[in-house]
């Protein structure tokens, strides 16, 4: 029979798995843009590789997230 710590660990793992599923569902799919859809500035290749489907430069993405919450 699992003890309290085992149950807490199981619940924690389920919550993390659920959060990852939601995060993946909210990620854009497809190629990243080379230019930001907000300011028109270049989106560095490193960002395009790290965040596939991104359409905003880091500055615009940060501002968007601060105004609207987490999102691509």
The total of beta strands comes to: 0
Output the number of helix runs: 3
The proportion of strand residues reads under 5%
Helix % is 55-70%
Pairing-aware structural class of the strands and helices?
Answer: mainly alpha
Largest sheet: none
Element order, helices and strands? HHH
Query: What is the arithmetic mean of pLDDT?
Result: 84
Contiguous low-pLDDT stretches (5 residues minimum) are none
Radius of gyration: 17 Å
Count of domains = 1
Ends: how far apart? 43 Å
- The best one-word shape is elongated
Account of the protein in words:
The protein has 72 residues and is mainly α. The chain has one domain. It contains three helices and no strands. It has helices at residues 4-26, 45-50, 58-68. The longest helix is centred in the first third of the chain and has 23 residues, at 4-26. It is elongated and about 60 Å long. 6% of the residues are buried.
Write the layout of secondary structure elements.
Blueprint: H1 4-26, H2 45-50, H3 58-68
Concise summary:
The chain is mainly alpha-helical and 72 residues long. It is built from three helices and no strands. It has one domain.
Keywords:
72 residues, mainly alpha, 3 helices, elongated
